Input
Amino acid sequence: MWIDRSDIQGLVVSGYAAQPASAMVEVRFGLEQGAAARQFLRRLLPVVSSASRHERFERCRIQVAFSASGLERLGLPEQTLAGFCPEFLGGMAERARLLGDVGEDSPASWDLGGPGRSIEALVFVYAPDVETREQKLDELGDWLEKSELDYDWTETFLDVAEREHFGFRTGGSAPHYRGLSSWRRKRLPLGELLLGHATADGRRLPSPTAPRPRSTRNLRLRHDGQVDLGRNGTYLVVRKLEQRVEQFWARMHELVRETGGQLGDERALASRLVGRAPDGTPLAGCPAGAHVRRANPGPGLDPAPRTHQLVRRGRLYEQGGERGLLFVALNADIAGQFEFVQRNFVNDPKFAGLRGERDPLLGSDDGAERRITLQGDGLRRRLELPRFVRLRGGGYFFLPSLSALAYLTEAGRGEAG
Ligand code: HEM
Output
C-alpha cells in the first residue's frame, strides 16, 4: 500500500524524541478574525513538518491542529463542518459526564480549554534544545502578533531518562500501522488512525468533504465533485493531567507500613499500580486493575483490541509548583477509541470482574471509594488510594493533512483573502 507521507503531519509517525524541548501554543481568534487567522496559517504552512523521510534531518518540527470553533472561524462551510464526528464538534467539556470528568476534574475548574476558554488552534513546537525552542516561540509569537491573534503557551519536555513524573519509563508500547510502519507483525489498518482509509472492519469512517478548491491540488476528488478534507488527517485528544507526585510516594510509603512490607517496598507497590517496573519491564503477576492493563487490556478482556488503540504523543510539563503530563493521543474515531478506553476500561468499576475499582492513576473523582486489589503469592489485598492525578483541562482537535491545511489557508465563505 502506497501512502503519501508528505501529506501527513509528522506527529502521526513520530514522537519526535530527537526534539525533547517542546511547547504547545494555544491560539484564539474570533469569527471576524478568520482572514487574519488564514494569513497566519499561510506563514505557518511551509514550516509544518510532514511524515516524509526527507524531513528527518530538520532540527525543529511544527505541527498544527484545530478545534471545531477554529475550523468554523476559518470559514469552513456548515455542510463541511457537519462531516466531522459529533464528539469533536461538541468538544471535550461537553462530554464531561460521560468521560467521568466530574468533581475536581469538572470543566468549570480547567485552566486549559473548557467553558469560556475556547482554543481555536494548537501549534506544537518540537526543538532539539531549550534555546532553539525559545527562538521558535519568539518567531511564532511575532507572526501571531502581526496577525493580531491571541495566544498562550505551555512549555513541555521529554525527560532525558524517558520517565514520567512518577518515575516510570514511558513510550513502551505503541501500535503499528500498515503503510506507515516497516514492522512486519500485528500491523493495524491505516483507517484506525487516519481518516479516508479502511478500518479493521473494512469501513471508512465519516470524513468531512468540501467544495472543490480553485488552487489546492492533492485533495482527493470524490465522485460527487467534492474533495475529501479529512483524508490523511486524524483527531487529536489533549488532556492536561496534574500529577501529585509527593502524595503518590507518601501513600506508597504508608501502604508499605500498613502491609508490613508483605507486598514489597514502595517501588514494587507503585509498579503494581502502573503495571510495569519503573524501567518499563512488564510485571510477572500484573494486577488486573493496573493502569497499563486497563489502558490496553488486549484479547480476552477487550472484545475488539485492534480498534481500541491510541497513538500517544504526551509530553511532561512543569508550571510553577505543578507537574504533570500533557497527554496527547491521536485516533481516527474519538468515540470508538479514546472515549471507549476511558469509559469502558479506565473508569469501569466492573472491569475484568473487579468490583468498585477504577484505574489507580486516572479513575474519576465521582465520589466512589478508590482502591485496587493486588493478588499473588497467596495474598489478596485491597488497597485504598487517594487521587494521584487531576484533570486540569483538555480538548478535541483535528490534525489535518498538509493538503487540507493548505485548503484552510484559502479564502473562506465569501470573504476576500
Ligand atoms: C498522568 C497520567 C498518566 C501516567 C502517569 C501514565 C503512565 C503510563 C506508563 C508509565 C505507561 C507504560 C509505558 C508506556 O507504554 O508508555 C503507560 C502506558 C499506557 N497508557 Fe498511560 N499514563 C497516564 C495517562 C494515560 C491516559 C489519560 C491514557 C488514555 C486514556 C493512557 C493510556 C495508556 C496506554 C494505552 C498505555 C499503553 C499500555 C500498553 O499497551 O501496555 N495513559 N502509561
